[in-house]
Amino acid sequence: MSQNLRWLYANRALRSFATAFLTVVFPLYLAMSGYSAARIGLVLTLSGVVSVVLLAGVGIFADSMGRKRAIIGLSILSLLGGVAMATSAAFWVVVLSSGLGGVGKGGGAGSGGSWGPLFPAEQPLLAEAVSDENRTKVFGRISFVGVVAGAFGSLVAVVPEWLHGHGWTWVASYHLLFGFSAILSLLMIATAWPIHEERPNMMAVSEQEPPPISVKRLTGRLGLTNALNGLGFGFLGPLLTYWFYRRYGAGPAELGALYTIINLATALPYLLASGIARRLGAVKAVTVTRILSIAALLLMAFVPKFWEAGFLYLLRMVFNSFGMPARQSFAMGVSDRRYRSRVAAFSNLPSQLTSMISPVIGGNAMESVLDFPVYGAAFFMALNVIAYYLAFRNITPPEERHLRRSS
């Protein structure tokens, strides 16, 4: 099934390309349309409800009905969301269409699109396309593809400013980009169609080693750690671009340039991630790199200039990208392959729920303490690192068990 990789890489590239410019322009579009910080936070929170429903649906149906079908279905919904955003700025239209279109559900700059409802359908297909020994390497490669595509996508964020300088209204220029995202969703459907999938509910238990932890316990532990991470990420995401806008007066051109640089800078660490995980072990690799990323994030609140804060954010995402493939690969490696979509979806569902809380809190808090989202994100992400290490320090994925046996 290794031929699936090229289609999964292409699908991720398209998704990351679209997510990159949508994450930058969407909160700015709302601000241009007259939305306050608190109302922007409310939109992001309510659109998160839509994302939670989609994520739960993937968890319930993808293992039995097919992960490929889930990817195609979500791409169709994303297409509808892009069309709706391109035609109306009404509150409930914006909420529903942004939820369906996956705005802010790609993990932000440097994440490579590793977020949102499509994630639990994609990750099992990746894991099943390669051996255990190459799993982390493949997870790093698809993230590499995602950030490179995201770098080009971030450049698209300058289009509204360019069009505005040539006589377009701000709203019309943003609507054009939302329509473009709908076209990209059509291409995502086309790249998912050739994927070959063996139905996971038909797999025999004997085809795999007994997992080192039960599905219930794994889902619970991942759910707890991801809930804390979701609280932290909810203070960032699209709200971070609004923070840059308020704190430094940064517009779409500056933000687009920054996010392009971040995407390019984080590409190489994804390719090196498997080597770090092999030396330290997956859990230690995740723990060390996350600690460094949190330190860089916290320092952002103390620098006076946009590009200084942008450089620290770049460092945060570089450190984060060293550990992300190991974290994703570890979850798939220690789970029962028949229920990987279920594990991925329901362990990430708490993060989707908690990430809905943070934007509305952060948006309101910004009215009095502008840097509150940065402090909140650093606090909860630190709790996430502690909980993750305590939960999984004694759990070993198959490739590390094989390495220990051979040595």
UniProtKB/TrEMBL annotation:
Pfam families: MFS_1 (PF07690)
SUPFAM superfamilies membership: MFS general substrate transporter (SSF103473)
Keyword Plastid: no
Main location: membrane
Sequence intervals crossing the membrane: 12-30, 42-62, 74-95, 171-193, 226-245, 257-276, 288-307, 372-392
Keyword check for Transport: yes
Location of the protein in the cell: Cell membrane
Organism domain of life: Bacteria
Alphabetized Gene3D superfamilies for the sequence: MFS general substrate transporter like domains
Keywords: Membrane, Transmembrane, Transmembrane helix, Transport
InterPro entries in the record: MFS (IPR011701), MFS_dom (IPR020846), MFS_trans_sf (IPR036259), Sugar_transporter_CS (IPR005829)
Domain Major facilitator superfamily (MFS) profile residues, every copy: 4-401
Membrane topology: Multi-pass membrane protein
PANTHER family: TRANSPORTER, PUTATIVE (AFU_ORTHOLOGUE AFUA_3G04000)-RELATED
Protein name: MFS transporter
Annotated organism of origin: Sulfobacillus thermotolerans
